[in-house]
Structures are given as C-alpha cells and as structure tokens.
C-alpha cells in the first residue's frame, strides 16, 4: 500500500528541512575555499554538473509552504545546440575540447531528494529519507570528489564506410604515443544525441582525459561508423529539416579534424549485405538490389533526394542499404559546417596502396610528430575489401550504372577523380 508524501511528512517539517538544505549548501560552498564553484553565481550552484541539481524558489503560491524544490533539469526539452554550447569550456593550449567536471553527487541521493520534495509516494515499508543523513552523505561525496574530474571530447573523427578497414587504421594510429583511444570504438552517440546524456559520451574518453590532464599534447578520437551516415535528428515530426550530426559536433568543437574513408559503393553494398544478413547468396543479393533500385526510383518521383536518403520511413523499406553509397549527399552536410581544410577524404582503395604515406599524411594533418607504425598484415586489408564469394557480374554492372552519376558528383565536389572508382 502506498501513501502520499503529505501523509508522512508534515508541511512544517518539510519546510524546516528545505530551509536547512539551502543553508547547508550555502555553508558548504563557503567552507570549500578551493571549490570550482567559487566564481559561479549562487543561483547556478550545481547547475554546471551533468548530474546536476538546481535549487530554486517557487513563487507560485504564498500558501504553499514548500517554497523550495530540488529537481534534475530536463535539458532534453531545450534546444540541444544551445545546451551544448553553454556547457563547454575550451582550454587554448589543448587541442581536445575539455572542461572540469564539478563534484559529483551520486544518483541514488538525487533520487531520494526528488522523491522527498516532489511529493511522490513512499511505500509503508520504506522510511522517509532522514534529512541529516542525506546532507551528511552529500558532504562526504562533495569532499571526496572536490578535486573534480577533467573531461574531454575527441579532437578528431575517423569516419569510414568499411568497418574492417576502419579497425585496422585505428590500430595503426594508436601506436603513436600522442594518440589515445577511447574505451570503445563504436560509440555511436551523435546520430542519437540528446543533451541529457552527454555525460555518458564523455565517459568513453575517461582514460585519454586522464592522460590529457598531465600532457597537453595528447589527443583522442571518435571512430564511430555511424557518425558520417546517420542523421536521426535531421527531420522533425513534420518532416522539416532541423539538425544534422555535423551541427552537433560543430557546436562542441568548430576546430575539429575529420578523416573520411570511402569505399567503392558497389563493393561496400555487397560487403554490408554479407555481414548484416549473415548470408552468402549472390543471387538473393541481386534480386534485392533490383527491388531496392525500383523502390528508390519511385521515391524520387514524389520526394527530394535528401528525403529518400535520410527519411526512415523510406530507408527502412529498402531491402539493401542502397542509399548509403550516395556519398555526396552526406558529405554536403559536413561541408556546410566544416571547411575543406578541416576534412581529409580518402578513397580506401587508393589510400591503402601506401599505408606509410597514409599515416604520415594523417600525422601531418593532426600536427603531431612523425611516427613509424609497425606494418600490419597486408592480407587483412585485402580480406576487408574482397569477400570470399564474389558478386554476380550482372549485379555489378547494374550497381555501377546506378552509382555512376552520384560518384561523378562526389568527384566534382571533392576535386578527386579517385572517387569515380573506374
């Protein structure tokens, strides 16, 4: 059986607790002379933390004794770009965008406070949280983490249309002593970005951030395979274009460096099919290619190209991911936010002809020292690009004809004829 909060805690006691909490928080910030909050206005205390608490005064009714409340801001309802810009600190001597995270208040304490002051119900078996115990716990956690965490986001991005090749390039890159890898390669954060889960993204770079706190020359990266292609927030519920993945990344670091590795879309489509469908039937692939091209052309009769490529109600119906090989449409979004001086594009087939040249080029673009990586097994790169069971010749002819005009557009935009894949 559940009882409402007012049945458990009298209004007078609740008011006393809340008054005491405000006084406690004020004393706590004054006691800690080295607090990162020292220069922050009182009303913003706790609001900078991603696990933030905010203390504010409710002036809706003079009859309401609960004049102070505690809550976790619902930042996902804000303009995400504006929310991001307000949270970031940039240290000029560090390439990665970094900031100091204020002391962390553990989630279970936050939850208890929410329940206590939002008037939510308690079970008879669960006693009302004791105010002094809660505040003692806060004090302990505050001073335990008073040194604050140094957190960083990536300085550069690796975007590849072939995950196998991407993994090998990453393995070569992290041999350089100045490059530290995140905790996992496929983070896949930006296409599904929400301003209330930034902290979880930053956690992936905790190890590189620890190095960065001691060595300003360290850089880290994000090599998520979905970053270049997916734009899940590009259209709102009315079908209007809103934010692209490039918009979000630019909001955090307008000086970011980006490497894009593109495979021949014909061989990419076949490789993705073999991997995702867990099958090795060239004839089935041929049939689904024919069906997908037919559906795509019908879409173009009623919609714009960008909608047929990005709108899920279209793309999720294609038997094969034909749209992902129309690279110039995706690239156009990135060029809208980032200059060509910030982006390096490579044809995978061409780049792998000289891996040392590729690594030297990347190191130079990142403005880091030269470093000779250990040579990787050449068979790995060959296997990444050449499946055991070849595609049917007639399928290849059809796909070459389909992608040819889009490849020409890509070559025109980039000024690189390698993207013709002839």
From TrEMBL:
Keywords, ordered alphabetically: Transferase
Gene Ontology terms describing biological process: hexose biosynthetic process
GO MF annotation terms: N-acetylgalactosamine 4-sulfate 6-O-sulfotransferase activity
InterPro entries with a match to the protein in the record: CS_Sulfotransferase, P-loop_NTPase
Keyword check for Transferase: yes
Domain of life: Eukaryota
EC number annotated for this UniProt entry: 2.8.2.33
Top-level enzyme category: transferase
Protein name: CHST15
Native species: Acanthosepion pharaonis (Pharaoh cuttlefish)
Top-level taxonomy: Eukaryota, Metazoa, Spiralia, Lophotrochozoa, Mollusca
């Amino acid at each position: 059986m559940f009882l409402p909060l007012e049945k458990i805690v009298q209004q007078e006691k609740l008011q006393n607790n809340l008054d005491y909490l405000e006084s406690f928080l004020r004393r706590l910030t004054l006691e800690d002379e080295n607090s990162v909050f020292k220069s922050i206005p009182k009303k913003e205390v706790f609001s900078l933390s991603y696990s933030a608490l905010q203390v504010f005064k409710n002036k809706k009714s003079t009859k309401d004794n609960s004049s102070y409340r505690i809550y976790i801001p619902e930042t996902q309802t804000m303009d995400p770009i504006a929310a991001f810009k307000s949270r970031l600190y940039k240290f000029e001597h560090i390439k990665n965008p970094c900031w100091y995270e204020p002391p962390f208040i553990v989630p279970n304490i936050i939850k208890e406070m929410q329940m206590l002051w939002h008037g939510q119900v308690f079970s008879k078996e669960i006693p009302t949280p004791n105010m002094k115990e809660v505040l003692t716990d806060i004090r302990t956690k505050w001073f335990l983490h008073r040194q604050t965490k140094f957190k960083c986001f990536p300085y550069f991005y690796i975007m590849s249309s072939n995950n196998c090749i991407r993994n090998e390039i990453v393995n070569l890159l992290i041999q350089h002593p100045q490059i530290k890898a995140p905790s996992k390669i496929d983070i896949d954060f930006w296409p599904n970005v929400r301003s209330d889960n930034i902290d979880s993204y930053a956690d992936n770079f905790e190890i590189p951030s620890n190095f960065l706190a001691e060595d300003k020359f360290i850089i880290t990266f994000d090599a998520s395979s979905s970053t270049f292609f997916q734009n899940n927030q590009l259209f709102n519920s009315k079908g209007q274009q809103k934010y692209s993945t490039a918009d979000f990344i630019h909001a955090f670091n307008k000086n970011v460096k980006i490497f894009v590795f593109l495979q021949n879309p014909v061989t990419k489509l076949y490789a993705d099919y073999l991997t995702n469908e867990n099958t090795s039937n060239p004839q089935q692939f041929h049939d689904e290619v024919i069906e997908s091209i037919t559906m795509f052309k019908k879409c173009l009769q009623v919609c714009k190209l960008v909608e047929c490529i990005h709108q899920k109600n279209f793309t999720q119906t294609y038997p094969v991911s034909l749209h992902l090989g129309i690279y110039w449409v995706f690239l156009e979004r990135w060029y809208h936010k980032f200059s060509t001086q910030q982006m390096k594009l490579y044809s995978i087939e061409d780049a792998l002809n000289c891996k040392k040249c590729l690594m030297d080029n990347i190191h130079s673009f990142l403005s880091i020292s030269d470093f000779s990586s250990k040579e990787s097994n050449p068979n790995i790169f060959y296997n990444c690009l050449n499946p055991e069971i070849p595609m049917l010749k007639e399928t290849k002819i059809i796909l070459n004809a389909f992608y040819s005009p889009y490849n020409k557009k890509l070559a025109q935009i980039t000024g690189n004829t390698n993207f013709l894949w002839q």
